[in-house]
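name: query_chain
kind: protein
chains: 1
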Amino acid sequence: MVSAGEFTGLPGAVAVSHLTVYDWPAADGVCGGSPHLHLTCSEAYVVTGGRGAVQTLTTSGYEVTPLAAGTVAWFTPGTIHRLVNEEDLRITVLMQNGGLPEAGDAVLTLPPEYLTDPQTYAAATAVPADAPEAEQERIARARRDLALEGYRALRDADGPEPLAAFHRAAAALVRPRLAEWRERWRRGAEAAAAATGHQLDRLERGDASHLADAVVRTRKPSAGGKFGMCGWLSVYRGTS
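structure:
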C-alpha cells in the first residue's frame, strides 16, 4: 500500500534522457541508430533540435515519421523503431515505466541466430562500460549494423510470420527478468498511480493534509553520456 506522499519520482514514473542521434552512416547510406522494440514501455520523442525521422515497423506495416524541432511523437510497445539523423537531430526522450528500459526492456532486431538465448544476445549487444571510448564506439557501431541486418529482413519479408517470430523470440529473451521488472513497476508506475488514488480519497473526505508534504526536487543529466542504442545518451538518475 502506497501513502499519498510516498511516491516522489517524476510525474507518472516516466524516465527522461537527452539523446543526440548517431551521425554514423549505415550500409544503406542512412545515418542513425539501432532498430529495436520495447516490450512494456511506450516511448515519446520531444525534438529539441535538428532534423530527421523515425522509421517504424508494426503489424500494420512500415512508416516514416518526420522529426523536426518542436515535434512530439510517440509509439506503443511492440513498435520496431529506427531513428534517422538527417541534420544534428537532438531529442528529449520520455519513457513510460521509468527503470524498466534500464533493466533491459528493449530488444534489438538482430538476425534470428542471435536471439536464441540471453547469453548469445548479450554477447552481441553489450558495450563494456570500462572499455576505451574508441572500443565502445566500435562495438556500438557493429551492433547497430547487425540490428539493421535483421531489421531489413523483417521490413522486406513476405507475410507476417517473420515479425511474429521476432516478437516470440524477444518475449523469450526477457522472460527471466520479468520478476525484476514487475518489482520496478510496483515501486514506480503502480506506486505513482496508487498515490493519486489515495490523494483523491483524502480530498473526498475533506482531508488536504498531503498538501503540506509538498517538495521540490531537481536532477542533472549524467555527465558525458554513453553509447545508447540510438545515439549518445545522457540520463537523469534517481528520478523514478
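note: The radius of gyration is 19 Å.
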